[in-house]
Amino acid sequence: MQANGAGQDTDSEVSCQNGAQNGESSSAGAAHSNGVVSVTNNGNTVSNNNNGVSAQPASNNNSPTDANSGVKKKKRLSQCEEDVIRLIGQHLHDLGLNQTVDLLMQESGCRLEHPSATKFRNHVMEGEWDKAESDLNELKALMHSPSAIVRMKFLLLQQKYLEYLEDGKVLEALQVLRAELTPLKYNTERIHILSGYLMCSHAEDLRAKAEWEGKGTASRTKLLDKLQTYLPPSVMLPPRRLQTLLKQAVELQRERCLYHNTKLDSGLDSVSLLLDHACSRKQFPCYTQQILTEHCNEVWFCKFSNDGTKLATGSKDTTVIVWHVDTETQQLKLMKTLEGHAYGVSYLAWSPDDAYLIACGPDDCSELWLWNVQTGELRTKMSQSHEDSLTSVAWNPDGKRFVTGGQRGQFYQCDLDGNLLDSWEGVRVQCLWCLSDGRTVLASDTHQRIRGYNFEDLTDRNIVQEDHPIMSFTVSKNGRLALLNVATQGVHLWDLQDRVLVRKYQGVTQGFYTIHSCFGGHNEDFIASGSEDHKVYIWHRRSELPIAELTGHTRTVNCVSWNPVLPGLLASASDDGTVRIWGPAPFLDVQDSEGLNECCSMDS
């Protein structure tokens, strides 16, 4: 590289011609792939446009470059080093720093891409379709799959056809369709669609129907991105390759971060590339923000509404309390108390639109209560028989039906007025869940299994089989994973689609009490569960060991619920009569809030 008109010493020379890949060598005075090369002429720099071959630095007459000069040349660059230089060159080119790219390629002796690829790129971007099509013949010899030429030619001709149509050159477009696209005998279905665009009355109509940006840089750049996928990266780099690699690195760091619980912009502008990503434990819901003491007996259940604005808690004291969640301060205040559940409330289910709340009792309770949350009025009090045990309930996604059952063999489907629509005989239900298909109901039973029941065609099938009683279970939002609390075993994660046990989470104390766990946090990356040792345990979904053990309760923690909208808010209900609301540390310093601190230990 020439600087300030002075000749460059050969100590700075590096020989890394990519010609080793493509069967060509670089020669002095030839242009590199950026299309411009600087050649020294008496200390002055002149430009030469020669379509894309790499260049060696030109030496001046006073520079000791021959073998007898005693100057030791630098070793050839490794393949990895060449790749990095090409990536940097591409990124600089995308930023418009073309002179910098020229100097980088000249000094390194590398080239950004094969000269045939450069020529092809220029012809595509200039809309010279005949020349671009001719370039494909040169590129064919460099491709791993020469048959891909047909697909590339199809993409080129499609763009040519659309541009003719936009320009109002209907006859020329028709000629491309009949004489060039159709003879390829490729993707005839797409050709039929393209022929329909001949009927478009104006350019805006064409762009809308074809979902196309129109003639110009945007659509041609998108075309080039598609065409590149058929070319080896040694010939033409994938578009924005350095940015892609950096995004992948950032995403991998986020995935490996045990406490990452926020939705960040997928772009690189929201993060620093100068530091590794690490969220602080202080940003995680490990700290008691509020203790709700309005219940006067054991609290058996808690559940946030689907929109995250309310929390319902059920207690042995015969009441359900509905709490309002202030989404700004994340503080809760009492909204309504629903009374009269003589046996206590051990299970609650919000309707899909959060308008209704169903309350169930313990084993000896034969009644189910359906409340209008807004008015506080009891809409339905359902009981089929005094001998029934209705301990679990799940809403159909349509919000017009629900299923309920218990361990005495009842399994019903009902409407909002409590009318019986269907029933399944002899199923001793422990816990229920309706899948998003609106037909399948999952039910854990006394045979240590979860089965799928279809009320429409009255079929059932085994999905999960455990060796110990399943005390409760819940299902992820996408319906793929199930989280089971298994007696004496703890918390198990199952894949419902593959019907395999994925993970057993350690630490929790689970006997024969019914304890309810949950998915939660951003993207449901976390799992939380109560425990008989008075703690709340939190795991990252991928890790068997807990990342946090939350202390504060003084008796068994029966249930946990993670707010589905506010990933930093968690509730826990305990036999100590309280509901604890967990959130991030109340005061974060600047460094913590930016997620730069190392993760703390898991002890609260």
**Helix tally?**
12
Give the amount of beta strand, in percent: 25-35%
Q: Name the structural class.
A: alpha+beta
Q: N-to-C terminal Cα separation, in Å?
A: 59 Å
User: Approximately how much helix is present in the residues?
Assistant: 10-25%
Number of extended strands: 30
- Quaternary state reads single chain
What form results from the Cα inertia axes?
A: elongated
Low-pLDDT runs: 1-71, 589-604
Strand order of the largest sheet: 3-30-29-28
- Kindly report the average pLDDT value: 83
Q: Using only CA atoms, what is the Rg?
A: 34 Å
- Biggest sheet features: 4 strands, antiparallel
Biased composition (Polar residues): 1-28, 56-68
WD repeats: 292-333, 338-369, 550-582
Domain CTLH: 113-172
Subcellular location: Cytoplasm; Mitochondrion
Describe the 3D structure.
The chain has 604 residues and is α+β, with helices and mostly antiparallel strands. Helices cover 22% and strands 26% of the residues. The chain is built from 12 helices and 30 strands. Strands 3-30-29-28 form a 4-stranded antiparallel sheet, with no helix packed on it. A 4-stranded antiparallel sheet has the order 4-5-6-7, with no helix packed on it. Helix 2 (79-94) runs antiparallel to helix 3. The longest helix has 19 residues, at 148-166. It is elongated, with a radius of gyration of 34 Å. The model is unreliable at 1-71 and 589-604 (pLDDT under 50). One of its GO terms (cellular component) is mitochondrion. Residues 1-28, 56-68 have a biased composition (Polar residues). Its main location: cytoplasm. It is found in: Cytoplasm; Mitochondrion. Residues 1-75 are annotated as: Disordered.
